[in-house]
Amino acid sequence: MATSPPTRKGILLLGIGLGLAVFAAGLALAQGFLPEWREMRPLPRRIFRERFGELAAQAGFSLEPGEPLIRLVTRSPQEYEPYRTLGDRGTDWLLATHTGIRVEVAQTARHPESRREGRFAVDFSMDGRPQALTWMTGDVGALFRPRDPAAGQSFAATLAQGLLGPGESLGPVRTDVLGDAARLVAPLVGSSPPQHVVAMLNALGGNLVRRAGAATGTASDAFQDQVERMIGRMAWSFLLLLLLLGLFVALAIQSRIGVVNGAVLALLCLVTLSPVPTLLTGWPAMSMIVMGVVAVRIFLGWSCAESLLRSTDANFTTSLDALRAGRLGPRGGRGLLTGFAFGAGLAGLGLALLALAAVLPGVWPEASSFNLPVFQPFRGPMADGAILAAGVALALALALRALPLRWAPAAAALVAGSVFAPLAIRPLAAGLVANTLFAGLLVYVCRRHGLTALLTAAIVAHLLPLAVFAGLHLDWTPVAFAATAGLSVAVVALGLLGLARSPAAEIQRLAPPVFVRRLEEERRLGHEMGLLARMQRGLLPRTLPRLDGWEVAAHSVLANEAGGDLYDFVHDDAGRLWLAAGDVAGHGYSCAIAQAMTKAALTSLIRADRTPAQVLQRADTVLRAAGATRNFTSLSLLRLDPATGDALLSNAGHPPALLWAAGEVEEIAIPSLPLGLGPPRCYQDQALHLPPGAALVFSSDGLFEAVDGGDAPYGYDRAREVLRGAGARDAGKILEAILADWRRHLRGGGPLDDTTVVVLRRSEERE
């Protein structure tokens, strides 16, 4: 019994309720164990503004007119967050220093030593203590100018003074070089717990000075590990982008790519990114470049994934086409609501797994459970969700092509979890387990509910934690709350609206992409060609005739699905055997029809009182009357008296037969035209006698015209030589010898035309 719409709607709403319940449980665990959720509320903005001005003046910066940018931020390990290197002690460190979340204050400034405009930024703890100072000019010309290490170290030391708290001082400074950057490490004497200062100076005029919480002896190694991992992650992202580009180009060359949905999704995500510089992007120009790279990655990933899924499954469709066209209906509504339910559940699962990592010994969360600010040049909930969804869909599409169906989902979950790692959990083994579980649920959503549900689930899983946190800090993040909460509510509202609409609105005048229509046509033609090939094989004899004192062997090699060669055996009322070997020019339906007509004509025209030439003459008339002149047929027709070995042979444009007798090979050439081609003609009979041990070989032109890698044809001479050496064998061995030599000539390549060989041999007389 079909489920009624109200019941289906109720089930979807129940699913949303369950998903939100899982999210609430994960949120409760996060607020109990994750430092970013347990962090104190920040001090008033004016305090951070004042302290920022004091630090700028202390370091010698001249701030440009206007208000500084003040916002809440989180830092990933690749952005030099020291807490994650501490492992299990990281949570206690963040809570003690109030740096689970930070307050970033940034403003355009100038410094007398650099004489260039740049971006000066300070990271504060939530209780107003400076944790990191950055100065970025984006001076590309600095790469080509000689650097003054002493001046750079002096400037770094000046910046480091701004991080000193009451009673603290810098200890002995250790200096080394990491890549193109100079690095300074010094203990903070008097700090509690023990801390140190790390300063980085690079060739682009960038400077970073930060506090870190580890022993001085290990600080350098930990910092270098973070930088190396950052470089490795950037290199991996670049490699992944190149792989996506290569796959996109390969699909484009095959005309099996659809780009509309990918382009629309990339554009929507690009709109949600922010060009405001961050610690990694440094200056606006770099931010714009990074935004473009993110959009290109989404475009390539989604286009490849969707196209591969469409081309893998003939019945695969997506309601994204209807959503893009503004024709939201029940199917799209179900995808949105289902995706929201799973997204809420995944958000709760992610928070629960990160909380578990913070509690378990030897396991720890490597980064915050959400990213602030909400919208950055290289990340945002929509962009992160789209990248994750595209990665899961692409992993599933490739797995479905490479692996058996039962293994593909598990393999896709493992690959997507390890490559895209939505949950930052260390060590590697624990992170792999958690991320495979997370990605596995997204794979299930894609397989069971489609791309719309997958994309919605991935985005909602990133949206909901941010919406809740922004709501808890509404005075600091009103725009972020409006965007994240508004988008979450809009997903549910659009889903309900789609359920209320008529299904016709969703599919009316909605055509699939061009490449999908072409693939469907190719599949239809492939299916029909398969049917045609089976029909044509059915036209060939199922069994070969058995005659006392005679051997018959035959084999046909098709160049493609539907060939044109034929052979047949008919007995007349006088007990004579008629052997026909022919070739219908062309391929496809018309060829099959001409084959069937030729076989039917022979069966009806062969009579004991007729000769092969008379039968060919009448067959030509029949085929012309049936309109088969476009597919002319070459045909050799033999009438054999098995008792005496006497035979009559007539030929209609077929390659000459080869007769082996007493160790010699004779070519039986009877010049003539094929059936159904050109003006009316008369055919001739040629009398033959096959003595004991003689063999008669009929071959289509595919044998003699086959070419090797150098375009050299197989030819008649080579076939004669093989027959001369193998003619004394039985019919089956003669056939094998000819085809084996022919295949050696092809050198592993496939034949360009159908090839048929029929061998008729009279056995040796026995005393």
Task: Please tell me about this protein's structure.
This protein is an alpha+beta fold and 767 residues long. It is built from 22 helices and 22 strands. The chain has 3 domains: 5-31 and 256-316 and 328-507, no CATH class; 37-226, no CATH class; 528-762, PPM-type phosphatase domain (Phosphatase 2c, domain 1). Strands 1, 2, 3, 4, 5, 6, 7, 8, 9 and 10 form a 10-stranded antiparallel beta sheet that branches. The protein has a 5-stranded antiparallel beta sheet with strand order 13-22-21-18-19. A hairpin with a 5-residue loop joins strand 4 (117-124) and strand 5 (130-136). It is elongated, with a radius of gyration of 40 Å. Residues 1-5 and 215-219 have low confidence and may be disordered.
